[in-house]
């Protein structure tokens, strides 16, 4: 006769598995990390105080340490070009950078200058040098925009910002240097 085993009652209550932990939101994780880092920093601050308590120090006057920048004006212009016309155009370029650019007048009420006004400010009364610089500048402008540009002031006044006039002065300085002027 076959042997029978008593049936196991499967309806008997068994221990329930614990629910998986709820995932923390980003805000909750950041709060926990912030709390942990604050505790670590506080502990490090106490350790620093304990470790340095025996070191004698003299108070520092912050006026000796913290100073503001000195008003030294614009940086000096390096001499890049040995020839007079190229050097004049370079100085005029620097003048527009430091004093500002304007259109419609040689010099506006704030001291900003147009391209020709910057050349005149830097030439020092030498009209021949001024004419040579203006001629090289006009040649540079015509190389870039074509022969329909009549004068340096008309090119200067045709632009709404200093970007093109500054670039024209810089390129004219390069051209004058290449020509040995």
List its traits:
54% helix; 0% strand; single chain; 181 residues; mainly alpha; 7 helices
Explain this structure to me?
There is one protein chain. With 181 residues, the protein is mainly α. The chain has two domains: 25-56; 84-179, no CATH class. The protein is built from seven helices and no strands. The longest helix is centred in the N-terminal third of the chain and has 27 residues, at 26-52. It is elongated and about 120 Å long.
Provide a concise account of the structure shown:
The protein has 181 residues and is mostly helical.
Portion in beta strands: under 5%
- Assign a percent range to the helix content: 40-55%
- What is the overall number of helices? 7
> What's the N-to-C terminus distance?
126 Å
Uncertain regions spanning at least 5 consecutive residues: none
> What string gives the helices and strands in order?
HHHHHHH
- How many domains? The number is 2
| Number of E-type strands | 0
SSE blueprint:
Elements: H1 26-52, H2 62-65, H3 84-99, H4 115-123, H5 127-145, H6 152-157, H7 163-179
């Amino acid at each position: 006769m076959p042997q029978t085993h008593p049936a196991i009652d499967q309806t008997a209550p068994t221990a329930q598995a614990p629910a998986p932990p709820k995932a923390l939101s980003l805000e909750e994780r950041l709060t926990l990390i912030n709390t942990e880092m604050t505790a670590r920093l506080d502990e490090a601050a106490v350790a620093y105080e304990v470790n340095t308590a025996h070191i004698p120090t003299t108070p520092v006057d912050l006026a000796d340490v913290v100073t503001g920048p000195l008003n030294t004006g614009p940086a000096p212009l390096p001499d890049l070009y040995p020839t007079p016309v190229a050097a004049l155009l370079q100085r005029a370029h620097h003048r527009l950078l430091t004093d500002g650019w304007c259109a419609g007048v040689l010099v506006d009420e704030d001291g900003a200058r147009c391209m020709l006004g910057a050349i005149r400010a830097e030439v020092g009364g030498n009209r021949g040098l001024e004419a040579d610089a203006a001629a090289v500048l006009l040649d540079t402008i015509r190389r870039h925009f074509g022969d329909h540009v009549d004068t340096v002031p008309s090119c200067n006044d045709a632009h709404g910002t200093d970007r093109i006039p500054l670039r024209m002065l810089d390129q004219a300085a390069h051209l004058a240097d290449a020509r040995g002027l």
